[in-house]
Amino acid sequence: MPAAANVRTLRFVLLAFFSVAVLYKVFTSTGPASYASDITSGISKDKAPPTLPKTEVTEHNVPQVAAADTDLGTDPSTSTSTPNLGTITPNDKSFPPAIASGKRANATFITLARNTDTWEIAKSIRHVEDRFNRKFNYDWIFLNDQPFDDTFKQITTRLVSGKTKYGIIPKEHWSFPDWIDQDKAARVREDMRQRKIIYGDSISYRHMCRFESGFFFEHELLADYEYYWRVEPSIKLFCDIDEDPFKFMKENNKKYGFAISLYEYKETIPTLWDTTKQFMTQFPQHIVEGNNLKFVSDDGGKTYNGCHFWSNFEIGSLDFLRSPAYREYFKFLDKAGGFFYERWGDAPVHSLAAALFLKKEELHFFNNIGYWHVPFTHCPTSEEDREKYKCSCNPKDNFDWKGYSCTSRYFEVNGKDKPKGYEYQMN
Ligand SMILES: Nc1nc2c(ncn2[C@@H]2O[C@H](COP(=O)(O)OP(=O)(O)OP(=O)(O)O)[C@@H](O)[C@H]2O)c(=O)[nH]1
Ligand SMILES: [Mg+2]
């Protein structure tokens, strides 16, 4: 046999041996490590790795420490396949157990995002997980007007310690209602473009504001939850959150919580207050006694001062948003057309509702949640708090007591004492 043939035979024998070894390994393997989490959710280890279900929900390891002595609340994750649901991506990460003991609230994080937001929401998630959720493992719902792509789902599922759920927004919640005059809406956008009003010429921004005002809480993925915490891409959290804000809301009968408040850009809402006043006249039953009208009006309701809670951070009650008062209010505003004929934002809409339909004490300022969304910072005022919660923010950046913030007013109209040292953070 020539030498070349000998070499070929040897190569063939080695290749055959290698192939048999690989096949043996594949057939005797117990499957990827990530499926170990199934043990804790009742699937025995000696079963074959499950094929990924055609559902929207992914789950990390069930927190073992908490599970031993606590009730994690009802599980609203049993979502079924519907036209608004996509597919899941495998969850290849296991997380350490959720160390916080005690009952969880029935609550979820909620994020509206585009696929292009993947890496910015990834940053936000790390902040929320590192400072809070790794200890609690709350679920996280992502909504989009387009289907989420695999990268978005893979990256977000990798980072969230609770279950992740992905939903598509129904068309009627992200489009022009038929009573909107398209020519008039287009003229407004052009006018706002010329006047350089931020997002003034954007159609998608208007759909976003309308959706966040009136529809996110109607999405079927949120149907079984009681509280939500809204998180946007590119935000930061500066302090440890050791006490569960969702549980705080529940136990203290709070309906709406904020971290930053400020004045609205009046050009975007010229008729929002007049429309709200018409609503108040037609639906006086929804205006509660002991409300926060003074936060939003300096003259007993004649005019709106522009104060609103910055809705890119919100911890709120879904039952409040799903109440007849709120739903009727949104319907009324939507009919008036200001989401398209002006550029009404969801922040003043939520805030006016919270100020008029809720009692003062149902609102809450989350002072200990250090927070940043470009360009404003909320940093706890007192040195003791910043030490206790290991805050990394510079107190000089705290926006609360500066001229463009409404938090000072919030304290005054609620008869609350401002925290020690606020005077030094006014400029
Ligand atoms: N799916 C989807 N999400 C959007 C769209 N526009 C905005 N969003 C999301 O809606 C939220 C608010 O949008 P932003 O662009 O952050 O609006 P903003 O906070 O007023 O403006 P910025 O100061 O630029 O952050 C964010 O969570 C965005 O990811 C869109 O067209 N589609
Ligand atoms: Mg934003």
TrEMBL record:
What SUPFAM superfamilies does the record point to? Nucleotide-diphospho-sugar transferases
Q: Which GO terms describe its molecular function?
A: alpha-1,2-mannosyltransferase activity
A GO BP entry? protein N-linked glycosylation
Q: What does UniProt give as the signal peptide span?
A: 1-28
Q: Which GO terms describe its cellular component?
A: Golgi apparatus; membrane
Q: Does the keyword Transport apply?
A: no
Q: Where is this region: Disordered?
A: 38-97
Does the record bear Cell division in its keywords?
no
Residue spans with biased composition (Polar residues)? 75-92
Checking InterPro entries in the record gives: Glyco_trans_15, Nucleotide-diphossugar_trans
Q: Which UniProt keywords apply?
A: Glycosyltransferase, Signal, Transferase
Protein family (similarity comment): Belongs to the glycosyltransferase 15 family.
Cited PANTHER family: ALPHA-1,2 MANNOSYLTRANSFERASE KTR1
This chain's protein is named: Glycolipid 2-alpha-mannosyltransferase 1
